[in-house]
Design goal:
The chain has 329 residues and is mainly alpha-helical. 67% of the residues lie in helices and 5% in strands.
């Protein structure tokens, strides 16, 4: 079914208006959404109703897992009714491509927003510590991969198996012999002279991975701030999980170690009135006074970008799949 010009125009206008309200008031206008969905049903009938059902189920699951907010799901709903299909190739359908594109494109947008917010963290001490840590981790990774590459090439063993084997040996040996990486130095030097181009490419790949990790950490720090329990507002997003004994745990790695289910987990929908009351009760009991909250980033810019990308270029998941195939084969 071809998308009408009227449906496309209404969708772009609806997205532009939602972008304005999301950036200025951090909300999506329910009346505007209802009118746009109604217009979509009138224009596209069965196709619009089918898409609404599918997108509602997908966004409900995403909302339930805290990936998107209720307001964001409304935007996806009016898009699916007004523009049920497009001319490009999609993995599933046009509305699902918009959702996938929006989530994928949100990462660079969130990253840039967080980095801009974290400018006050960029002290000389912080940068020196991070650069030192990344240089050490890059050197260690390069030594392990260089050794694995030599073993893989000369003993005809799988590169992945070699990396896993040497990494496992290193983790075990490092507990007793901190200077274990000295052992890998001859392998690195040998590889650097015999396979210079390959080692340079490996170094660039490791450097880029470390750079991305650093930027993600910087972005994450820039979006967090401490707040008193009594000052919390409905919709604010926790930067970690709260447990029954008052523990506030930010690290996902640490939360996995804790067998106990968190009393309140961080969700994109933000804190509910009931959850704030639970936190206030914990404060009265002397278990917790402050929590860290994460500044929410407007998601409609990502949805708008995801829609335009899907309509004019295609499905990002298909593009990534084709790139992966080209790299592997």
């Amino acid at each position: 079914m071809e998308t009408s010009i009227i449906g496309l125009a209404l969708c772009i206008l609806g997205l532009a208006y939602s972008l304005y309200t999301d950036l200025k008031y951090r909300e999506i206008n329910n009346k505007a959404v209802a009118l746009l969905i109604l217009a979509g049903v009138i224009l596209n009938r069965f196709e619009a109703l089918k898409n609404l059902l599918i997108v509602f189920l997908i966004t409900f699951i995403l909302w339930n897992f805290g990936v998107i907010s209720a307001g964001d799901s409304k935007v996806f709903l009016f898009i699916s009714s007004l523009v049920p299909s497009a001319t490009k190739t999609y993995l599933y359908s046009f509305p699902t491509a918009v959702i996938i594109n929006s989530i994928l494109l949100s990462f660079p947008i969130f990253l840039i927003y967080g980095i801009l917010k974290s400018s006050e963290l960029l002290t000389k001490k912080f940068l020196f510590r991070e650069i030192r840590t990344k240089i050490i981790s890059t050197a260690k990774a390069l030594m392990i991969i260089s050794s694995a590459y030599i073993i893989s090439k000369h003993l005809e063993v799988s590169m992945l198996l070699s990396i896993l084997l040497i990494t496992a040996i290193t983790i075990v040996a490092e507990k007793r012999f901190k200077e274990i990486y000295i052992v890998y130095t001859p392998a690195l030097l040998f590889a650097a002279f015999t396979e210079t181009r390959t080692i340079i490419l490996i170094f660039i790949a490791i450097f880029l991975i470390n750079l991305i990790i650093f930027l993600l950490k910087l972005s994450s720090l820039g979006l967090k701030r401490e707040k008193n329990i009594d000052e919390l507002k409905e919709g604010e997003i926790l930067a970690g999980a709260v447990y029954g004994d008052g523990r506030f745990v930010e690290s996902i790695k640490e939360r996995i170690k804790i067998k106990e289910k968190p009393l309140i987990a961080p969700m994109a929908r933000g804190l509910t009135r009931e959850e704030i009351e639970i936190l206030k009760k914990l404060k009265r009991e002397g278990k917790i006074n402050k929590v860290k909250i994460r500044d929410s980033v407007p998601f409609v810019p990502s949805i708008f970008a995801g829609f335009l990308f899907a309509y004019f270029i295609g499905d990002l998941s298909l593009i990534f799949r084709d790139l992966l195939k080209a790299l592997l084969y």
